[in-house]
Amino acid sequence: MTRLDLAISRAFGLSRRAAREAVRAGRVDVDGATVTEPGSVVTESTRLTHHPGRPAKRRVRTRLSVLAEDDDFVIVAKPAGLLAVPTAERESDTLLARVLDYLHHRYRRRPFAGVVHRIDRDTSGAVVFARNREALRYLQELFKRHAIEREYVALVEGRPPASGVLDADLVRDAGLGRRGIARRGETGIRAVTRYRVLEQWPGAALVSVRLETGRTHQIRVHFSAAGHPVLGDPVYRRSAAPPAIDVARQMLHASRLGFRHRETGAAVAVEAPLPADFAVAIAALRRKGRET
Prior knowledge:
It is built from six helices and 17 strands.
């Protein structure tokens, strides 16, 4: 896999800067869909098209990081600390509100942004919204059938096995308003989490996580129950021992999102770059590992 701007530079003989500008201007299609984020990830089999004569898309000043979009969807990178959608408190600044504002200013018409899925307030990463009702039904059905590729990265405490499958059923309320693992004789909801360790340090590990099911707090509950809570998780961490490093929020990031396009059947795949606080935490753990 490689960055889109680098792939465009190589494929069409452009400088790296010219390739970035072509992508941002909306002059590059990836498997038939316009992608405007130069950092999007493509593979060798991805079909790339460059349209140098295409009028540049209107630049929009926004607090939104758009990873990919076309007439059916918009995929954005949610920052940690921002709600995906409003709660009963009717918060005005949410990811949904920012998407609607972005679409309104970009296309100058009343926008539609259908909520397909959510990630936790303090989790960062890729979230897709539908741009029409047909796409909303299609994407919601993909999520229902678990036909969406979702990969997370997380910093977890301790030394987990190199890889594994966490498949304990979950219950909605395990006490104190928390989700939890179903006990013997208790009816739970099927949940399957696959992971592999990418890097290990004293007291913590970087793991790649793939979801076969998408339950609320699934990753956090599964890793906590396995004795390796997500670093910085204020809800599911049970140990009184100090963590490997101090962090300001749970270190969980929705790094990759992929699905088949509703009309073309082409693979849509984006990667959300690691946010600064996550990268800083990894750097701190690496320093600590060198010092021990």
